[in-house]
Design brief:
Strand content: 5-15%
Radius of gyration: 22 Å
Number of helices: 15
Largest sheet: 4 strands, antiparallel
Strand order of the largest sheet: 1-2-3-4
Length: 307
């Protein structure tokens, strides 16, 4: 199972690397409906949900981030994609990894590699409940100690962790048929990405990068769906209602179903440049902007002469 998760992680990491670091017509047409759909706080929430449901990472960024930050991402795209030097060893590893998941017969080869781990995990099945409980406790503690979450968010996350633990207890991680289906999703996604080299990844422009990221996110969803986590169904269940509005601030009640359980939460929204956005995300962005623009601190330590 760990190998399968690594393969999935490679795709997800690639999506995040591509999306976080740039055909302009696509960006323009995507941006217009997002702006229109952000006219009310609840519509802004649903715009983000629809973008993620459609694996449209560009639309998601436009819906969830201030326009100035999206513009900065686009402007810095080429620089971010090339700022870390890559070595011949990096290139070699990338080709080896992508070849392994895209070559003819990759599905059978990957399953043959995974099968001994499935059998080993099956032999340890009796220990799994205790391991899940430990992980559940660790995550719950982390949530309660996190100062970035308010009490309502902690309550929601705690309930989600409990639901996820219940799912994990019943999930058939050692099932060979499910493992083969997950591997098929990974190889299908890798082939759709169609990236032959690390240099090819570095050469992607913003729009190309967003498209590749969307393919990878769709692939990760497919892997999760094999084991019963149907993220698109969760997204389809989302409903949002503006409960109060005061000037450029608002509160939105969000309900959704995950792990076959109903969840309800309330989030704060603020209007920035005519667009409703999550308050926490805006606060974080503003802090980062302030830190980036602050003058460097002068050292107060006395200089020492070189010996």
């Amino acid at each position: 199972m760990s190998t399968l998760l690594k393969r999935t992680a490679v795709l997800l990491a690639l999506a995040l690397a591509v999306a976080a670091c740039g055909n302009k017509e696509e960006a323009t047409t995507t941006g217009a409906p997002v702006a229109a759909s952000s006219a009310t706080p609840d519509a802004a929430v649903l715009a983000s949900v629809r973008a993620l449901r459609g694996n449209d990472i560009n639309a998601l960024l436009n819906a969830a981030m201030p326009a100035a930050e999206v513009a900065k991402i686009k402007a810095d795209w080429a620089k971010k994609m090339t700022e870390d030097p890559i070595t011949d060893e990096d290139r070699k590893k990338f080709v080896e990894q992508m070849t392994k998941v895209t070559e003819p017969g990759a599905e059978d080869k990957l399953f043959a590699e995974l099968e001994p781990q499935l059998k080993k995990l099956e032999a340890q099945q009796a220990q799994l409940p205790a391991m899940i409980a430990m992980g559940q406790s660790f995550l719950q503690t982390g949530v309660q100690q996190n100062q970035d979450f308010n009490e309502d968010q902690k309550k929601q996350l705690s309930a989600m962790i409990d639901a996820a633990a219940k799912w994990a207890q019943a999930a058939k991680f050692t099932d060979a048929a499910l493992a083969k289906a997950a591997i098929a999703a990974v190889t299908k996604t890798a082939r759709e990405l169609n990236l032959k080299s690390l240099d090819e990844v570095r050469a992607l422009n913003y729009e190309q990068g967003m498209a590749k990221a969307g393919i990878a996110v769709a692939g990760v969803k497919q892997v999760f769906a094999v084991y019963g986590i149907k993220i698109d169904d969760w997204l389809d269940s989302v409903k949002a209602e503006t409960t109060s509005t005061t000037g450029d601030s608002a509160k939105v009640k969000v309900t959704y179903t995950a792990f076959d359980q109903p969840f309800t939460g309330e989030g704060e929204m603020v209007k920035v440049d005519g667009k409703w956005l999550g308050k926490q995300a805006v606060d974080k962005w503003q802090k980062e902007q302030a830190a980036a623009s602050a003058p460097p601190k002068l050292s107060t330590e006395p200089a020492t002469a070189d010996k």
